[in-house]
Amino acid sequence: MAVTGCSQCIKYMLFFLNFIFWLAGGVILGVALWLRHDSQTSHLLMQQFEGNQAPGTFHISVYVLIAIGAVMMFVGFLGCYGAIQESQCLLGTFFTCLVILFACEVAAGLWGFINRDTISTELINFYDAAYIKAVDPVDSPSRQAASKVLMAFHDSLDCCGKGDENQLFTAVQASLCPKKKFPLDHLNSQSCHTKLRDLFTEKLHIIGLAALVIAVIMVFEMIFTMVLCCAIRNAPAY
């Protein structure tokens, strides 16, 4: 044990922060897996209409989160081991990884903020394409497929229609919204557009809060790592 005094305190604080960082990586990995297998979103994103799959931007974002969680767990372990062993090489590698992760997190945060409405907008457009075909008075295989897509949305989100009073939709709403009581109160019934926006806004808030907490931890870890490396370099034993 080469470092003493305040440097030794920083060493154990860095170990503690790295342990929290490792746990945070595990939490992110767990949340990402939950988002990936969440029955509500998965059921919607598995829908197909006229050969087109529902937009998969959400799943791409979740896969990125899974990768980030796994990398964070590895980097957290590296930091814990480097701090306990007082290894400048391991701490330097850990610091480099932290800088790269922090830059990636900032870039991902900016991309997410700019494209925060992309996922819900893509699904709304997919819903509207099926909606137009489902209210078509002419019966066809395409209309039947569109009706199945709409029923999946209505069952998963507990909504009915787009919130308008379209006469064509009114004629078929009993079959497309089996959980609703009729006559339907359009003023009090929440539209599927609103439900879709609320669904993904809520999940993005969870991701954003987790990213903010982790960014703060990473800043403190980078500071403590630099201080500890300097203390180890200046220690008499080295």
TrEMBL record:
InterPro entries: Tetraspanin/Peripherin, Tetraspanin_animals, Tetraspanin_CS, Tetraspanin_EC2_sf
Family named by the database record: Belongs to the tetraspanin (TM4SF) family.
Transmembrane residue ranges: 12-35, 60-84, 91-114, 206-232
Endpoints of the signal sequence: none
Keywords noted in UniProt: Disulfide bond, Membrane, Transmembrane, Transmembrane helix
Cystine bridges: C159-C192, C160-C177
Membrane topology of this protein: Multi-pass membrane protein
Major subcellular location class: membrane
Location in or out of the cell: Membrane
GO cellular component: plasma membrane
Pfam families, alphabetized: Tetraspanin
Organism the protein comes from: Carassius auratus
Domain of life of the native organism: Eukaryota
Protein name: Tetraspanin
